[in-house]
Design the sequence.
């Protein structure tokens, strides 16, 4: 008979194999070659040039599982040319510095704009705990931890459209809101998506005059819940539709979907640009699997 420790080790190995197989199929080789590889720079890659798909699969695996770079199961992604985790991280870092993942997301949005449902758009902020500190991180008293705050925009189907540059966690969603909205809408503008005439759902945390003024400058109609701190409801003349506001649940669903990528649940990246680029990778994978694969 096998002892308890042997049985436990055997089960862990079986679970690890199952997880590895399922995660590497998140985007298989054919999908990567068709939708991702054309946007990757064709610079000098040395011996790893023959297995650049394996590098991409390793990055996607790390995004999905949240494991450390050194814990990547490199044998699963190597072909004739052995891969090392340092090689994977090197490519990831280089592509982040060049904004490749953001360009990939913009290209997908621009080419497949018909899949975006802009009957209403939803906006919401989200705090993420930063385990290693780093850029754009600060202590958030409500969570009793160091966090980064990002603001996300999605369409009426809950499909993510854009995200802001991370801010320090001690700030609320309306901190530096002009730059935040500018960064978010800039992604859509680059993808040739117009927000003029769109209805924007937002919670009471964004019920400020500055938000309404900025949205008005972009032609966005605000549907923001009332903030009790701003006075009585009858004193306000701003438009608000209760039935339209019910559509806001899709942004909460989008946040729950983002949490399925374990590398996005907790932040370990020191650089805020690397952290933001991870989100663009997740957006792209989601978009390809949902709309571009039959």
Sequence:
């Amino acid at each position: 008979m096998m002892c308890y420790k042997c049985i436990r080790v055997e089960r862990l190995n079986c679970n690890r194999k199952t997880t590895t197989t399922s995660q590497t199929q998140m985007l298989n080789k054919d999908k990567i070659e068709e939708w991702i590889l054309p946007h990757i720079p064709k610079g000098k890659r040395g011996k790893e040039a023959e297995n650049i798909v394996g590098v991409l699969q390793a990055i996607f695996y790390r995004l999905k599982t949240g494991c450390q770079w050194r814990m990547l199961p490199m044998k699963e992604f190597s072909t004739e040319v052995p891969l090392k985790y340092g090689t994977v991280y090197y490519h990831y870092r280089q592509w982040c510095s060049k904004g490749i993942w953001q360009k990939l997301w913009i290209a997908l949005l621009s080419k497949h704009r018909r899949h975006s449902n802009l009957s209403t758009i939803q906006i919401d902020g989200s705090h993420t705990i930063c385990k290693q500190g780093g850029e754009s991180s600060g202590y958030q008293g409500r969570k009793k931890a160091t966090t980064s705050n990002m603001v996300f925009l999605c369409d009426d189907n809950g499909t993510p459209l854009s995200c802001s540059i991370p801010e320090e966690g001690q700030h609320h969603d309306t901190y530096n809101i002009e730059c935040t909205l500018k960064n978010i809408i800039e992604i859509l503008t680059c993808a040739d998506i117009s927000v003029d005439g769109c209805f924007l759902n937002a919670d009471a945390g964004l019920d400020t005059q500055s938000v309404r003024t900025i949205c008005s400058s972009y032609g966005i109609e605000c549907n923001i819940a009332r903030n009790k701190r701003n006075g009585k409801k009858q004193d306000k003349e701003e438009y608000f539709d209760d039935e339209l506001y019910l559509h806001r649940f899709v942004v909460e669903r989008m946040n729950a979907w983002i949490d399925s990528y374990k590398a996005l649940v907790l932040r370990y990246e020191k650089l805020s640009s690397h952290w933001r680029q991870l989100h663009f990778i997740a957006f792209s994978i989601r978009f390809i699997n949902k709309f571009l694969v039959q």
